[in-house]
Amino acid sequence: MKKILILMTLCLTLEGCIFVVGAAAGAAAVAAVYDHRTIERTLEDTQIANTITERLKTASSASWDQSHIEVTTFHHVVLLSGETPYASYRAQAEHIAQSVRNVARVYNQITVQNPTSSLTRTSDTWITTKIKTQMLANEELKSGNIKVVTENGTVFLMGIVSRSQADIAVDIAKEASGVQRVVKVFQYKE
What we know:
The chain is built from six helices and eight strands. It has helices at 2-13, 39-59, 61-65, 87-99, 118-137, 163-175, and strands spanning 21-22, 29-33, 68-74, 77-84, 105-112, 145-151, 154-161, 181-188. The strands form two sheets. It has a five-stranded mixed β-sheet with strand order 1-2-6-7-8, covered by helices on one side. Mean pLDDT is 84; it is low at 1-29.
C-alpha cells in the first residue's frame, strides 16, 4: 500500500508521468502520451527542468519577469519555448540550458517578441488537449513516448518514437484546429 501511495504522489507531482496534462505556473500546455520513462529518468528530467528554470530566474530577474519561457525536458533533451522581448536573454537561456549537467541536447525555440496573452495560452492548452486525446485513441501510438507542447499555435512533439509513430503523431497534430505549425523534437528508435 505504501508503494502505491508513493507512486500516486509522484505521478501527481511530476510533469510527464503517465497521462499528465500540466503546465508549470500557467505556462504552455504540456502533455505526455503513454510515458514509459523510468521513475529515475522522470526525476532526472524534472531536476534538469527545475535547475534551468531557477538559473533563468536568477540570471536576469528583469528579463525573466518580462518574458514567458517554458522549459520542457524529455529523456535529457531540453526544449526551450515561449517569448522574450530580448534576443540576449534568448541566447542566455540556451547557454544556461546547455551548461546543466546531464543535458544531452537543447532546442531553443524561444521567439523574440512580447509574451503571449493568457487567452493565447488557454487556446494552446486546448490544442494540446485535442492532440493528446487523438493520440491516446490511436493504437499505433500507445507504445510510444510522446510529449506535446503548444506555444502560440506551434505544436512541439518530443519523445522516443519510431519514424512511423512520428509520422502519425505529426498528422494528428496538423489536423487539430488552431495549429499553425508542427515541430518534431523526436529521438528515433530503430
